[in-house]
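User: I'm writing a short methods note and want a consistent example. For Probable membrane transporter protein, I'll paste the sequence; you return only the structure tokens, no commentary, since I'll be parsing the reply automatically.
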Amino acid sequence: MDFGILELLIGLLVGLIIGFSKTGMPSLGVLAVAIMAIVFPAKASVGLLVPMLIVGDIFAVTYYRRRVIWKYLWQVMPWVIVGLICGFLVLDYSGNKLLQILIGAIVLILLVLHLIKARMDQKLEAKLDGSLWFSAILGILAGVTTMIGNAAGGIMSIYLLAKKLDKDAFVGTGAWFYLFVNVIKVPFHASLGLITWHTLHFDILMIPAIIGGALIGVIALKRVPQEWFQRIVLILTAIGGIRLLFG
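Assistant:
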């Protein structure tokens, strides 16, 4: 795969978006997925994104290292690993267009469920959030969608918002989750030829843009009120889901 001026410019734009999404607006990550899938072959775009995401993750966990709620990660990670294995099989044998549609549908369905859950009785809501099935279903879905399209952001946003975290803990807990998951994905994608020395060279060139976006995200997060932060996350998740479904 050759990288011309257009591809490099798009890569820099996506790097900014990734950096910003890692420290300021998590649901923006799905926009990076959509842009890369438009400019590059769909499967190739998946492999190109993973190392870029890891760079953003490292920056995010460094900045928010004290704001992680570990118990929420341990509740969901075993199920995420199951989803990663299932997603690897799907990625290997299925067409990318179908996978993109499925991811978009899943994100939108989960968004609707979150809006419905916001009107539930508090006792029922607490029971659902603490249930094994809640963590299992969202964990498996997150694992599948992140493996086949780097698109678990919408699903994890629903999971973390349900835990009623403040915005710093929301970003910090999510940052550690994405770092763990993206590192796990590397050997799977490499085995399919989606991550190579050639693609890694492209990713290295994008590091300055990722760092710049991360710095912008840190500043933006401090200035966005908690209520508006949650609204923006939900709106961007919906936009991302629609883009994946009909893009």
